[in-house]
Each structure stands twice: as C-alpha cells, then as structure tokens.
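Figure 6 in text form: structure in, sequence out.
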C-alpha cells in the first residue's frame, strides 16, 4: 500500500488519509491504560469469530471509557470474499482498506459525526448571541455514543488480554504470528462508557438519530439491538460514509434498495425486541394500500442524501460512472 498508515497512526495524525471525513487521535492518552473488564461477547463464541474487534471497560488516566480494540484487516481476503470480478477491477487496495476496514469505517463515520457537532455548535453560538434561548447545545444531543478519538496500543498487550480475558483472535498476518516480522500495534477507538444493559430506549428518538445520520451522509447498515446502548448506536464498523466506493459502484437502483433496507431493519429490530411502539421507519404499505388517497412513493424520503455525492466518485485511480 502506497500510504504508510502505521506511521500516520504513530504520529497521531487524523485518519484515514483519503478523501472524506477523518478522526483524530485521543489527545489525553499518555500510554497509561488499565483493562478492567470485557464488555463485548465471549471470545470463544461464533459471534467473536465474525466480529470486528472487542470492547473493554478501561481506565485511561483517571477516567473510564469503552475501548474498542480492532482486529487486523486483510485486504487480500476482503477482495476475495467481498468483491465480484467487476468490482475488483474498479477499486484499489488502498481505497478498499480506507473505506471498508472496520477501524477506518468507524473513523470516517465518527469524523463526520464530530464535524456535525462542531457545525451545529457554531450555529448554536451565533443564535445564542441573538438571544435565542430555545436553541440547545449540540453536545447535549448526541446522535450516537460519543467517540473521543483513536489510540494505538503496543502489541505487548496481546498476552495480557489473553491471560486476563481469554481474547486471542486478532486476525494478524501469518508473518507476524510466525515472528518473521514484528507485530503491529493494536488500533482502538476511545468511546464514552455507557454502563447500561438497555439497548432500545425511546424508539422515536432512535429513529430521529438514524434519519439524522443518513442525512449527513452515514449509512450504518447494521441496525440491530446488539449495536445499541441505551438507545444510542455504538457500532459503525460496516458503515458507509460518503464519499464511499461501494454505493458509487453499485448504481442508483441497488443503492436505493440498500438504503431502504436499513429502514426495514429498524422496524424489524423493534419487532424482534418486542417493543410496543407506533414508531415506524417505513410506512405500513398494507395499510396504505387500503387508503386510495395514500401516496406510497418511498423515493420522496426526506432523509435521502445528495444523489450527486453517490453517483460519481473516484475509486483508486479510476472514475466510476454508474449513470
């Protein structure tokens, strides 16, 4: 890969180094970290095999956080399992890594979310000077569990995590496992610790957050109760944050279908969790069909992002035209 990502991470520069939003390093990290407990799934289960990493309750300095430590990404394996022959020719290894590696996918999503907060706070400040007390500070209205930045953790922690939590599946390259080359440090995100067993809380607010995420160009794609804490989304490991190579490559029809499916997932989550609510992300087409005056054209959804952003985007060194 042309870009030396490891050097960027060690220098604590914003990542990923590609077009689009970026996430900076957590500035208060000085190397002192205490792992208290494993929050995520049992490391010996099938869920762990397919997961993108592990979440720990940690103490950094004097503060407690949820720390998501990511597994390592094999771009060659990703090209084999995720892409068709046509897509393999269209996307470079570098773009695939920076957009689809779960660590970078979350960095891009949180980079966009944090920028949204900053922009909203600037507007709030201007309105406050105009004596508009009804305008709330954006920091009090998170649309996802807050992320404070990334850190790198020395590879020596691997043995500690195995002894203390039995965590052992990190998907390291064979050359690192064999000792042929030094092991790379772990990549991790520092997030707010939400110490709650509740996943679904206030469906109407949750739907509003999902719509706002989509409006600012983030499709989480993974709308399940396990990815929520107290009604706030915590996982963006397979999110698309515009500009993203995949939505640009699949064409407008499939892109719209996948965006609609995200809303169906929200409704299905409420049903699976047996939540009693009238809130629906998608209209009840069976009911609407009975009403002659009901317009069921979903293409007019108010949360759709700018079509021009998705339809043409430089992937690798090639321009994709999906018109």
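Output sequence:
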């Amino acid at each position: 890969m042309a870009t030396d990502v490891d050097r960027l991470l060690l220098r604590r520069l914003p990542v990923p180094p590609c077009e689009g939003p970026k996430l900076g390093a957590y500035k208060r990290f000085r190397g002192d970290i205490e792992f208290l407990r494993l929050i995520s799934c049992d490391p010996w289960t099938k869920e762990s095999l397919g997961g993108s990493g592990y979440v720990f309750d940690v103490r950094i300095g004097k503060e407690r956080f949820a720390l998501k430590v990511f597994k390592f990404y094999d771009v060659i394996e990703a090209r084999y399992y995720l892409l068709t022959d046509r897509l393999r020719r269209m996307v470079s290894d570098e773009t695939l890594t920076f957009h689809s590696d779960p660590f970078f996918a979350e960095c891009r999503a949180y980079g966009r979310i944090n920028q949204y907060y900053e922009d909203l706070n600037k507007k709030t400040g201007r309105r406050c000077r105009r004596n508009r007390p009804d305008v709330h500070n954006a920091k009090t209205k998170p649309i996802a569990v807050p992320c404070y930045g990334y850190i790198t953790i020395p590879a020596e922690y691997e043995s500690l995590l195995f002894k203390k939590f039995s965590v052992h599946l990190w998907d390291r390259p064979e050359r690192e496992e064999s000792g042929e080359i030094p092991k790379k440090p772990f990549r991790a995100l520092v997030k707010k610790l939400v110490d709650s067993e509740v996943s679904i809380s206030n469906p109407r607010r949750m739907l509003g957050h999902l719509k706002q995420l989509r409006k600012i160009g983030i499709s989480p794609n993974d709308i399940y109760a396990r990815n929520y804490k107290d009604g706030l989304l915590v996982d963006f490991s397979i999110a698309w944050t515009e500009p993203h190579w995949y939505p640009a490559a699949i064409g407008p029809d499939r892109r719209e279908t996948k965006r609609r499916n995200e809303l169906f997932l929200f409704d299905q989550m409420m049903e699976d969790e047996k939540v009693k609510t009238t809130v629906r992300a998608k209209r009840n087409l069976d009911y609407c069909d009975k009403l002659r005056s009901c317009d069921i054209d979903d293409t007019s959804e108010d949360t759709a992002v700018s079509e021009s952003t998705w339809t043409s985007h430089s992937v690798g060194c090639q321009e994709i035209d999906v018109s």
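Caption detail: The mean pLDDT is 83.
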